[in-house]
């Protein structure tokens, strides 16, 4: 089975803002990015399409797969940054709680938000459900954090290595081969 993890297009948010699960809209470049993605996946026949329900993913999934049933799954949402949603990252870094979280993000939850272990658990549950489907090609429209976790879970790569070495671009496709029996 192949999973085509498609990161949502650019968002209508100023650079440097933490937007996690905030339901932000897409940027003006949406149709250019969508057209490029259509070219990237045009030769693939998908058996199922899954997507985060957040607007930036929903819009892209519906535009890429207008004739497909799309499974909008809340487990595919980005990390919930709690009180830090829509704050500048620079402001988060200067807070004592923000610095503590950044130094221990693999274990600690964000301020009134979610921890990576919680996010890994929900994304992993989705992957296990997808593995049970009789399919060759699955599209998942999601967020950079979700795609990093997919890479971690599917390819057994520690999350700590992914933040420095793996940065899915907006409107990009990452393909994973998945063994349904793992």
Task: From the structure above, extract its key features.
182 residues; alpha/beta; Rossmann fold; 7 helices; 39% helix
Would you mind describing this structure in some detail?
It is a single chain. The protein is an alpha/beta fold and 182 residues long. The N and C termini lie close together (12 Å). It has helices spanning 30-41, 55-64, 89-94, 96-103, 116-131, 144-155, 159-165; strands at 2-7, 48-51, 70-72, 137-142, 173-177. The protein is globular. Helix 5 packs across helix 6 (144-155). The chain has one domain (2-177): Phosphoglycerate mutase-like (Rossmann fold, 3-Layer(aba) Sandwich).
What's the topology here?
Layout: E1 2-7, H1 30-41, E2 48-51, H2 55-64, E3 70-72, H3 89-94, H4 96-103, H5 116-131, E4 137-142, H6 144-155, H7 159-165, E5 173-177
Parallel strand pairs: 1-4, 2-3, 2-4
Antiparallel strand pairs: 1-5
Helix pairs in contact: 5-6
Q: Give the distance, in angstroms, between the N- and C-terminal Cα atoms.
A: 12 Å
Corresponding CATH superfamily: Phosphoglycerate mutase-like
Number of domains: 1
Note the total helix count.
Answer: 7
Strand content: 5-15%
Helix content: 25-40%
Specify the structural class. Answer: alpha/beta
């Amino acid at each position: 089975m192949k999973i085509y993890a498609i990161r949502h297009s650019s968002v209508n948010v100023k650079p440097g803002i933490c937007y996690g699960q905030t339901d932000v809209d897409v940027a003006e470049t949406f149709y250019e990015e969508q057209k490029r993605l259509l070219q990237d996946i045009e030769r693939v026949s998908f058996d199922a399409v899954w997507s985060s329900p957040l607007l930036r993913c929903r819009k892209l999934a519906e535009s890429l797969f207008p004739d497909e049933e799309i499974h909008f799954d809340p487990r595919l949402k980005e990390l919930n940054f709690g009180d830090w949603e829509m704050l500048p990252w620079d402001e988060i870094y200067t807070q004592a709680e923000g610095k503590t979280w950044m130094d221990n993000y693999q274990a600690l939850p964000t301020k009134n938000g979610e921890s990576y272990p919680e996010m890994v658990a929900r994304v992993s549950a989705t992957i296990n459900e997808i593995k049970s489907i009789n399919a060759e090609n699955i599209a998942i429209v999601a967020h950079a954090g979700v795609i990093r976790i997919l890479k971690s879970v599917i390819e057994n790569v520690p999350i700590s290595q992914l933040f420095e070495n793996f940065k899915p671009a907006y409107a990009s496709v990452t393909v994973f081969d998945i063994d349904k029996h793992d």
